[in-house]
Amino acid sequence: MKRFLNVMLCLGIMTVSASVARRPNFIVILVDDLDETQDSRGELAMPATKRLLRDRGVTFTNHFVTTPICCPSRVSLLRGQLGHNTNFTDVLGPHGGYAKFRALDLDREWLPTWLQKAGYKTLYTGKFIVDYTIRNYDPPPSGWTVFDALVHPFIFEYYSPAFSLNGGQPRMYPGGWSGRWVGPIGKGME
């Protein structure tokens, strides 16, 4: 169970809904620390994920990552650029962190803004960047119709997470679970 929680604490989920009926809806799921060391492939790891995805036929046998560090990898995926192009190469400053992310304007031209320009509504929930904290949650990154991210130091508090909805005052969810979305999902996504 602990290994499952280690994986799920790093879960970030993006959902995208089309404002025009012809466009498909899709979900991008970002996860961290899926490796042999944490036995994330073992039978006890991620039972819900296996039940909902693997057991229904979705598997990934050949996959790659631009950098094996959580936050730079997220930025690379969402920007469509490698870390050496974004200059965001670490979890914390001086080469990473939310302050650097904001200073580099990395949320100006990236996947959520491109999707919004195409008429989609976007939602992000879960871990964003480790250094998105109770001191710098406002303003949130641009491009999200709804942005509900875990805030540090509660990102790694499995059973008492804190989220900031759209840059608002962080809200604690005692007894909640950081790997499961506990906020008002869909609010603003109508």
From TrEMBL:
Start and end residues of each Sulfatase N-terminal domain: 24-150
Q: Which Gene3D superfamilies match?
A: Alkaline Phosphatase, subunit A
Where does the record locate the signal sequence feature? 1-18
**Which UniProt keywords are listed?**
Glycoprotein, Hydrolase, Signal
Q: Which residues form a coiled coil?
A: none
UniProt keyword Signal present:
yes
Q: Name one Pfam family in it.
A: Sulfatase
Domain of life from the UniProt record: Eukaryota
Q: Which InterPro entries match?
A: Alkaline_phosphatase_core_sf, Sulfatase_CS, Sulfatase_N
Record's keyword annotation contains Phosphoprotein: no
The family this protein is said to belong to: Belongs to the sulfatase family.
User: PANTHER family under this entry?
Assistant: N-ACETYLGLUCOSAMINE-6-SULFATASE FAMILY MEMBER, SD21168P
User: Which protein is depicted?
Assistant: Sulfatase N-terminal domain-containing protein
Species annotation: Volvox africanus
